[in-house]
Structures are given as C-alpha cells and as structure tokens.
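Case study B.
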Amino acid sequence: MKKKYAVGIDIGGTTTKFGIVTEKGEILVQDRIPTNQHEVVEEFIDDLYNKLMPMIEQHGGVENFIGIGMGAPNGNIYTGTIEYAPNLKWKGIIPIAELMEKNFGLPTKLTNDANAAAVGEMMYGCTKNMKHFITITLGTGVGSGIVIDGKIVVGHDGFAGELGHTVIRPGGRLHKTTGLHGSLESYASATGVRETAIELLTEHPEKESLLRDFSLNELTSQTVYECAMQGDDIANSIFEFTGQILGESLANFIMFSSPEAIVLFGGLTKAGNLLLNPTRQHMEANLLPIFRNKVKLLFSELNEADAAILGASALVWDIKE
Amino acid sequence: MKKKYAVGIDIGGTTTKFGIVTEKGEILVQDRIPTNQHEVVEEFIDDLYNKLMPMIEQHGGVENFIGIGMGAPNGNIYTGTIEYAPNLKWKGIIPIAELMEKNFGLPTKLTNDANAAAVGEMMYGCTKNMKHFITITLGTGVGSGIVIDGKIVVGHDGFAGELGHTVIRPGGRLHKTTGLHGSLESYASATGVRETAIELLTEHPEKESLLRDFSLNELTSQTVYECAMQGDDIANSIFEFTGQILGESLANFIMFSSPEAIVLFGGLTKAGNLLLNPTRQHMEANLLPIFRNKVKLLFSELNEADAAILGASALVWDIKE
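Model:
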C-alpha cells in the first residue's frame, strides 16, 4: 500500500513548526513548540516527540508515513546535520536527522530552512511552473533559496544560498552575529529596518517624525510601517532606503543566475508597495539592459511557515518504499 | 565511421580565434582573424570561411567533423544568437549559429564566451574533477562562467553569469559602456587597474612613484605590474586595492553557489601573488565562517584562448551523428 503522509518540520530560531502533509500539499494538522528553550537537542526532540507522535498515531501510525522532512538553519542536505547555526542554542555539529530516525523510526531528510521554503514555493506556490527562481525571506534575518533548472542550489558542501550575508555596502553597518560589515541582512531585515530608523532619527534631530513618540523597545519594523502609512517622512525614507539596498542586491543576484522570478517572503513583505516600489526601481536601475523588465518580483502566496513545512515534507516524497 | 574532429571558435571583442580540436582536447591547428574590422556579420563569416575551410579540408573535409562550437560575448545557447553585445560592431540580434550552418554545412552551437572558457576548464583544465566552480576572466573586461552540478549556469534566458557587472561599490566608479556605478569590471579589469592608477596618482600628488614617468597612454596594467615588482608603493597599492575589490566580490559569489574552487584567467593574472594575496585575504575576511578556508583560489592552467576554443568545441561532442 502506498504510504499516504509525510511530516514536514520547520526549525526556526524561536519556534519550530510541524505538520502532517499529503502529497498534494495539504497540511492536515499542524502545531508548534519553542526551539530555544532546550539547552540540548535531545530534550528538544523529546518535546517534539510528545506533540508529534500523537498526530502521527491519529493518521494511521508510522507505517502510513513515507518519512520526515526537516528545514533548519545551516541544515546540510548531504550530511543530515545542523552545523554551527548562529541562531540556535545547540552548538557545533548536530546529527539531527539521525536522532530523529532513531526516535521516530522514520527515514528523515534535512535541508536548510530557506531552501525548504523555496521547494515549498516551487511545488505548491507561485513558482509552480518555473525552473529558475530565487526566494528571499525578509524576517528577523534574511534567508534565501536558489532554484536553477528546477533544483535547489546547495553547492559542493551543502551550504550554498546564503544571500543574506552577501555584502552590498562594503565597510558598512556591522552585522553583530557574523562580524561582517554591510551585508544585506544588516539592512533588509526587521532588525535592519529598526537600526535604519534609529540612525535616521538620531542623524536628523531637526526632522519631526511620529516615530519619535515610540520608545526604543517599541521601535519595530511594524511601527515604522504604521507611521509610513500615516505619511511620516522619516518612516517613508526608511522603506525607501531598505528597498534601495534590497533592489541593488537583487540586481546582483539576477546577473548571477538569471532567474525568471524573485519571490519575497517574511514579515517585512507586509509593507507591500512601500517596500516593493523602491526595490523594483533600484533593481532595474542596476541591471544590464539584457536583464531589464524581464524578472518578476513577487510576494509569496504561501505564508512563510506553510511554505517551509510543505517544502520540508517535499524532501521525502521520492524516498523509495 | 565516428567523426573525428570539432571546430572551436572564440569570438572576442578584438580577435576571433579558432581551431580544430580532437575529442581528447588537442588543438591540432589554430588561427585568428580580427573581429571588429567587419561592419556586417556576413563579411566576418566570409573572412572566417576563407581561413577555416582550408583547415577543415586538410582534416578530411566536413564529413569528418561533428560540428562547430562557438563562444561569443552575449552568445545565447538557447537561440544560437548573439544579442546586443556591447563590444561588437554587429548590433541587435545576430543569428550567427544559423549563418554558420548555412555557410559551412555543419551543425553549430553557440554559447557565451566566458561560459565556453569554463567548459574548457572543466573538460581539460584544473577543475577536471569538480562539479562546482566559477571561472573569472580578468582581461580588458571581467567575464565569468559558473558551473553547478557539472553544468554551466545559463538561467531562464541564457544570459546568466554576468558577474563582472555585479555592483560591489554602489554609487562608485562609472562603468562607461554599461552606465552602472561601482561594478566589479570597473575596478578588476585591465581598464580598471589603469583607472585606479590615474586616481591614486592624481589624489596623492605628494607621493613619489615610478608610474609618474609614463605617459597616460603608456600607463597600462602591465606598467603597473612592472613598477610594483620594483617595489613602487603606489603600484603596490593599486594591486592591493584591486585585490580587495575582487576578494569582496568573490566572497559574495561563494555565498551564492558555494563552489569548490574559483579559477582566475586573463591578462591581470600575470600579476601573480601581487593580485592573489590581497584577493584571498579580502575574500576570506568577507565569508561566513562555514565557507572559510574551503574554497580553492586558482590560476587557470590553460591559456585563455585555448580554454575558450576547447570549451567551444566541447559544445558539439554530444551532437548525435
């Protein structure tokens, strides 16, 4: 009998989301646990087991499942290990696929979380018929998944597609967890938008802004968005600047792999055209003519968590029964 | 009878080189014609025919040839056309593969010149056993060929791999033929080295330099190299700066596709360690830790023209007889 379901798991810095998925991409049931409450990975897996195993039992037990697909920061598809993930508490090299197999008795595949989201988009989202595209997640950080010829680019060691860490302002803003200066993530993330806000507010003390009414703690990308929607000049400049940095970076990515589309995910995309317009403008302005007005710039139609769960689950459908 | 030979043709901005190649990658005979003396492509093909056809006849005639492989600026592998090549006199879209087939009666395949060089390197050069690498040609301009999973990356429209035009100093030096500011090519090409020399000499009139003895016309990347080898400070700073720009760019490329090696070709590589040391230093300094001390930085073992002829010829070996 053909096995009916896959488990998809998306391990994020804060929250781990998981669900039971059909081959058609329906998420039948999903739940979540905190990621970083567990000092050691074994405790995390115990916690996950207690929530996930009952869901598996309700869907006919492990014999009804083809396997478990996981996305995680610095997840390596070649080795099934999470390696030196800066945003996770578990340090060094974590053989998580092996640990999961032992605990659940199901074949387990792992990949990078951003790559899982790109696979989800390709199988079930707005790039269903595309063979060349790039997904960029604009969340707390900036993640990316690159698809060329219908396959995720993982490179010779499994770590390709770290576009958030490419440098677009050499010598620019310090990115605290990596020590790099001027990387895309240091500007075009929720954290980056907040930093830009603080910079602009302190550099222009003479300019009035609704943003000045918020405490430093309240100053988030969401606050900036709300003020921009009320016509606040500084708030609008913040998105203009963020879009410029993002657009310049996207132009560079396009001249690398010439994708048909770039798909944007994540919290910052809630800003809609406030972000999209300057991004598109600076992207086009930095392209060679042969690339201009060709590349679609899209917002994902899947929500980010769904895309990652779906993409992770998709890793296992080609496992031989 | 199995056909024995292929023709490889490398169309450059100034010179077109061509040769007769065996499947093992021996160039049996080669010659060259100027590229830009011909206002229309038909005259160029006539000139090429007059030189190349006798070589084909000497090797058993067209029936002994599997086909013609060509590399050209903006050569599109999908369509066999050269499209809007900024460095060629023939404007618009040139159906050169079709024209060659008509004239020579041999199947003809076309690709981008830098991609042809990368294929040559993969089949016959220092990346023979690698499936993930990037070649960068540091000549009058900066070309690139990207190999992922053993295949040249051409993207959805055939134009991928324009790494020389990625921007590494946003708002920086104007690149005259493209109008882009701060692209890699505007710094890390022979033209760029000359511009850096002029900038440094005029910005620091107080500093002594052997370079001041040369006229503007004599000030080439070769002159800069010779002065640097004699211990000239400004000449050394020029290579230091060029290596910094190149190294920063390479770091970005590595975080895109995680290659096993980057192979440098072209005139500027004659500078050897003068260029290689600062390039490596700035490349490593701009990488995430997971990529550090992993990626080989190599000089090609093939000369550039050979690599392009070999790579172009390699395009046709899988044509069915």
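The longest strand of chain A covers residues 15-22. The remaining cases will be described in the next quarterly update.
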